[in-house]
């Protein structure tokens, strides 16, 4: 079984009875905690118009997290590129890389990270997204290149910065693009597991080596809720279930505390749908998580697991990442 890196995906969750400021402070505390545990990177995801997510100004939050950490890589998982000008993103991440050299990642996706009304407010044109997204990635590569110094439009800061670009996807479309451009590929298995196997197969079979990335590199984002016992892990997982159930029901509210009986909240159809969508969730005690990791890695052989943790209590969330780290270390040492 292939050894793998371990990283964190954070949405800066805003909880019921708390504040956005507290959510951001807890993200900083978590980043410092997982850095000490040896996690590879800490990514923040761009979302808009969600009361329970405070990571909308992703570049700003990356700078905040990088300022309070020392060695962990910090980046976007991702910036939803068609929401922005390529030049502005190049300048923002060029500034971050200048301030925190060798520690900044730029993960990019094409989805809006929000609803249709908000996507329109962001200035997106859905008719041109599939053409715009690949073109913007090439633009970013050009702006970051030192060879762009004679161009009429330059990214300053940004030009000459060594900022790795990762392509994010939840279907097979971006797998083709990542393979063609010779870039690392991260799949959103934490909410869209159905096409991951096909996407990774396409990516590996069609990968075109690039100067920065001579070999393919895959990241699978999964959910992680670990605790001392399987029963406690199941209970704290109810916050994740309620969060996704609210998306189905178009309910926008801060994260909910855990409950003892989800069957009193969802109906059988909702339960079946959600459990399928969340099938790649490492959940349980250390032993259970370790077995789930083993089964997953024997099948997918990814280079990196990125764990998203929707846990209400901050200390329980930190403990979950500690248990997951221990489980991963036990596997990688075999």
Automatic annotation (TrEMBL):
GO molecular function annotation: oxidoreductase activity, acting on paired donors, with incorporation or reduction of molecular oxygen
One Pfam assignment: Bac_luciferase
Sequence intervals crossing the membrane: none
Domain Luciferase-like: start-end pairs: 9-259
InterPro entries: Bact_Lucif_Oxidored, CmoO-like, Luciferase-like_dom, Luciferase-like_sf
GO cellular component terms listed in the entry, alphabetical order: cytosol
CDD domains found in the cross-reference section: Flavin_utilizing_monoxygenases
Record family assignment: To bacterial alkanal monooxygenase alpha and beta chains.
Protein name, per record: Luciferase-like monooxygenase
Taxonomic lineage: Bacteria, Pseudomonadati, Bacteroidota, Flavobacteriia, Flavobacteriales
